[in-house]
Specification:
Chain lengths: ~400, ~425
């Protein structure tokens, strides 16, 4: 009886779903209200140095758009038609007061839309801090590394201005350690899904990661540990699905139904670029030495390759996807890019060419966070899954 | 009455003043130089307009090829539509920047430059990553084709509206440790900082006259159109001529031409000759449309609308805000140049700039030409419009077109919008007179 987890996977996922659909961020509001002086700092998808917010005694809160549940009324007045959905639903969250409790916002330099959104935020919500996190595209420690350390240092100063307290190196180290635990647990979750995708449905994995965006990391660590323990106690039926890697969901989020539809159509997702911030670093961040240097080094030398990042070495372009296919024994790649997404759509032809040269099957479609019609996607993914089976049988 | 225009009917030749003719010669000479670069043993560097390091490239005897300018030239010559579609056939998304697709389509069709001669393959892609994300992916795409080295030169974004010491130090270090050594290796020419200083000195001289010309629009009537005419005026300084005697000469000549126009009380020259009475003074934000450039411009001058200031003429440098290339701080000055280009400035800075232009140039309002496929400019423009309107009390309007994809230029729509905008200005004036 001692090994029995406290929760079943269904309990845990039910909690995640509640957090996911709560666009008022009640959990984060309650966390903030529980102790005076606490701050909550929002960040946009992709990447943010969450450790620094944590070290400042704050809660880093992932703002991942409005999904398909939010009716965008005001946000549409800020954007013309040819722009992806996420900035308008983020504006909607802001204008509708849902982010009124947030003390500041961090905008990663993922693309021109988010870049300009950071300025919009400054104009629209001047009382809330807005911090643009400029990320290096030069991966030398001496160049991009030094620049990134200075960005991180400025971010610390900015956070200190929100709390009125300086951030110590020891506090950053302690936060790195907690996030290392988180990264380890997330890696374990990914490994388990790659090994037994029937036991870790991707919609559950996604919800688990999303939950981590809105609750304290310590709580999320416990949640992940509980889920991993609970999942080991159950066996779900194995299906004759094809194993695929998904690429393109690094910023605007897919509707949950889209992930479910892909799996329902006969595909097991064995790797993806969901919520990259949770496993940006491939391994632990070093705990010795200057913590800002450690974070910078991890960024430069041990982080995920992804469309919004520059690849200095042409010979390595896109190989991360090939590696993922090999490592996770996938049979094909599904490019699911956000409509109007520059980084994703400009990158796609290059990645497709690399996969082609490695003989890896692929399909591509576009989505938006509020895409409702799943039938065409299900059909496309289903046909893809079938054709993979045919090829691999030949 | 329907006028049937036969396929052989040519539009009437545009009227050009002497400076335009001179510039055309310069551009043609540059394309010829590019086309024959390899024969003369010259190396070619492809690089972008915003943040272009022409003076530095000249230190390595390199010729500069600007893919955006090729796309513009192809747009003006109505070649770009076919190229864009060609790129889409090759798998490029309909959603992305049409400059990229025009460039890739042109490459797929043999890389014939606007002068009808093949463009040489670049020896290096100098990825000056300033204020537009597309640049990065564009050169990654070209790198696959040309198999040549790509140098990433990253410019930090002015997110907080200021240049910090760390930004300059990052950029200068990149130049010293990465960009310059690589250019030395690729070109086989040793870097000589005094040569760079000399070019920068020349740049600053041309920049002075360039700014004088742009600011001449403060006169009433404005002797220039700072958007449609402006794209001619920025050509040499934004392109391959900064740092040369040619640029100095051109701007001196242009200045004297404008001085004469002011003395004669003339408005700007248009493709149909001198503009009639100046009725509306506008500030324009966003790039123009190139596939229907003349038609677009005509919608303005037919109504007596002149653009007195535009943000587009600042994409290759915000010289009117005081920046000059500085021979005494050569590398720092290159860094500052890149940091200051318009799209590298954050949205609040852009709004401030437009507000200032409306006030300083005594404009009647702001017009935004929002480019469908350019997020760098366009994302956030509706808020900018509202902010400027709020701060200046002057009416603003918003139109949507594309740069070089003719499928997204709807003449009737644009014309309607402009007409109602001019009416709005009239009403505002009448209201003002009524209130006075
Ligand atoms: S979905 Fe793509 S284009 Fe839109 S904000 Fe995200 S990264 Fe930028
Ligand atoms: S600034 Fe706009 S038009 Fe120029 S390359 Fe970038 S996206 Fe394209």
């Amino acid at each position: 009886m001692l090994d029995r987890p406290h929760h079943t996977t269904a309990d845990i996922i039910a909690r995640c779903e509640a957090l996911f659909s709560d666009l008022s961020f009640t959990a984060a509001r309650e966390w903030k209200a529980a102790e005076p002086g606490r701050i909550v700092v929002g960040f946009l998808p992709y990447y943010a140095p969450r450790e620094l917010v944590h070290a400042a005694g704050g809660l880093p809160l992932g703002i991942f758009g409005g999904g398909d549940q939010l009716e965008v009324i005001h946000g549409d007045a800020y954007y013309q038609s040819y722009i992806c959905r996420i900035p308008r639903s983020t504006i909607e969250l802001g204008v509708s007061g849902r982010l009124d409790f947030v003390d500041g916002m961090m905008f990663p330099s993922i693309c021109d839309v988010i870049r300009n959104l950071s300025g919009m935020w400054k104009l629209m919500f001047p009382s809330k801090g807005a911090r643009y996190i400029d990320l290096p595209h030069n991966f030398d420690d001496d160049l991009g590394g030094e620049f990134y350390v200075s960005e991180l240092r400025e971010t610390c100063e900015w956070l200190s201005s929100l709390t009125g307290k300086p951030i110590t190196s020891d506090a950053i180290r302690a936060s790195i350690a907690v996030f290392n635990d988180n990264r380890r647990l997330v890696r374990a979750l990914y490994q388990l899904r790659a090994d037994e995708p029937w036991n870790v449905p991707s919609a559950e994995l996604y919800l688990l990661l999303r939950a981590g965006m809105v609750i304290p990391v310590e709580e999320h660590n416990q949640m992940l540990a509980d889920y991993l323990a609970a999942v080991r106690l159950q066996q779900r039926p194995i299906k004759d699905n094809s194993r695929v890697v998904i690429c393109g969901m690094f910023c605007e989020q897919p509707p949950l139904n889209l992930i479910k539809s892909i799996e329902l159509s006969g595909c097991y997702i064995v790797d993806d670029d969901f919520i990259l911030v949770t496993r940006w670093e491939n391994s632990d961040v070093a705990l010795d030495g200057d913590p800002l240097q450690s974070l910078a080094r991890a960024y430069l030398h041990d982080s995920k390759s992804t469309p919004p990042k520059y690849e200095p070495d042409e010979a390595k372009k896109g190989l991360y996807l090939v590696d993922s296919v090999r490592k996770n024994r996938a049979e094909g790649v599904i490019f699911a890019m956000t409509s109007f997404c520059d980084p994703g759509l400009l990158e796609r032809p290059m990645l497709q060419a690399v996969l082609k040269s490695h003989g890896i099957p692929q399909i591509a479609f576009k989505y938006a966070e509020n895409s409702g019609q799943m039938q065409p996607i299900r059909e496309q993914a289903g046909t893809f899954a079938d054709s993979i089976k045919l090829w691999s049988g030949a | 009455m329907t006028v049937i225009v036969g396929p052989k009917t040519k539009p009437p030749e545009a009227i050009k003043d002497a400076s335009m003719a001179r510039q055309k010669q310069m551009v043609n000479a540059h394309y010829d130089r590019l086309a024959s670069a390899k024969e003369r043993g010259e190396k070619v560097a492809a690089t972008f307009v915003p943040g272009n390091l022409n003076e530095l490239l000249m230190c390595f005897d390199m010729v500069n090829n600007l893919p955006e300018v090729n796309a513009i030239q192809n747009g003006l010559r109505r070649q770009s539509g076919g190229y864009v579609m060609e790129a889409e056939k090759l798998g490029h998304s309909e959603d992305v920047c049409t400059y990229v697709k025009s460039d890739i389509g042109m490459m797929a069709k043999g890389n014939i430059g606007p002068n009808g001669k093949p463009l040489p393959d670049p020896d290096v892609l100098l990825l000056s990553y300033t204020g537009c994300f597309t640049f990065m992916k564009w050169f990654e795409l070209l790198r696959r084709q040309y198999k040549c080295e790509t140098i990433m030169f990253q410019t930090p974004y002015l997110a907080d509206g200021r240049i910090t010491k760390d930004m300059i130090s990052y950029m200068v270090k990149q130049l010293r440790q990465d960009v310059i050594p690589k250019l030395e290796r690729i070109s086989g020419v040793k870097f000589d900082i005094d040569r760079l200083r000399e070019y920068l000195r020349k740049s600053a001289k041309a920049e002075d006259d360039h700014v004088w010309v742009l600011q001449s629009a403060k006169h009433k009537p404005s002797p220039i159109d700072a958007y449609f005419g402006g794209i001619y005026y920025i050509g040499p300084i934004f392109g391959a001529f900064r740092g040369t005697d040619d640029a100095i000469e051109y701007y001196k000549f242009l200045r004297s031409e404008v001085e004469q126009r002011i003395a004669q009380g003339k408005g700007p020259v248009t493709p149909d000759g001198d503009m009639g009475q100046e009725r509306y003074r506008l500030v324009v934000e966003g790039p123009p449309n190139y596939t229907n450039f003349r038609q677009f411009w005509k919608m303005f001058y037919d109504e007596g609308a002149v653009v007195v200031a535009s943000s587009y003429t600042k994409v290759g440098g915000t010289y009117d805000y005081g920046f000059r290339h500085d021979p005494d701080r050569p590398l720092e000055s290159l860094a500052e140049y890149c940091l200051n280009v318009y799209t590298n400035r954050n949205l609040p800075m852009r709004v401030d700039m437009l507000e200032n232009y409306i006030n300083e140039y005594e404009a009647d309002g702001l017009l935004i030409n929002s480019i469908k496929s350019c997020n760098s400019f366009s994302a956030g423009q509706l808020l900018m419009m509202r902010e400027v309107e709020k701060r200046t009390g002057k009416p603003a309007a918003f139109i949507e077109t594309d740069l070089v994809d003719p499928r997204y230029f709807s003449a009737a729509n644009v014309k309607n919008r402009l007409e109602s905008y001019f009416q709005m200005i009239e009403q505002k004036r009448a209201g003002f007179r009524g209130a006075a």
